[in-house]
Structure of GTP cyclohydrolase 1 type 2 homolog:
Amino acid sequence: MPPVTVADSVRALEAAYPPALAQDWDAVGLAVGDPAEGVRRVLIAVDPLPEVIEEAVTVGTDLLVTHHPLLLRGVHGVAATGPKGTAVHRLIRHGVALFTAHTNADAARPGVSDALAEALGVTVEGPLAPQDDGTVGIGRVGSLAAPESLAEFSRRVADALPATAWGVRTGGDPQRSVRRVAVSGGAGDSMLHLARAAGVDVYVTADLRHHPATDHLAEAGAPALVDVAHWASEHPWCAQAAAVLAAAAPDLEITVSTVRTDAWSLGSPSPEPTCAGAVIS
């Protein structure tokens, strides 16, 4: 039996990402696997999708750690007749345990948004949406080492995060000066008001919808927006979680998955507009 077990790994991860920080609706912790089983190889990814599970099986993974849960909503069975049941059966059949740290990893410090801020060169000052004693919470607020234009910052974000089909979208004056930054890994348009209240120059998040974004940008003095793919915004956390496990068990063989699990597979640029509008008769 290897010196490290699934239970040991879970303890290390839950010390870093306490389950008590998770939202009430969330499903975190050990979803598949025997706590007494040994662990030699760990794979860390954002999503427990079929291609990630296939990677875990192929490389002989004992423990798959993901940010997003496999079984978030209530289920009444795990027959291998649908995607979720098939995933559970494949994990069990090949001896792969599955552990998830979701909104607890979002709120923990360091957590998902700290990893995103670090990737972007943002020095964190505190949470965007504090909870409990104010030291933890969703999102982060911080600053760049020196001001730069919004266009330059948008390029910084695109260069720092893993590539996706549709890249990075930015709303605001390209020449606007950017120094103070708010970030939130994952879907963050529910916190647009907090970004405004924080007095930042730009807010980086994912899954921004048309109406909340346009309403936000119409407000005088509102922060510019940088919208990235959900998966890309949370992928930096994988290296953070790998470091947590490596510190607790240096003998583990830990790999961060590079499988792109962003939902979108193709981006087709629009042609340059040739006129300001069109006349319909």
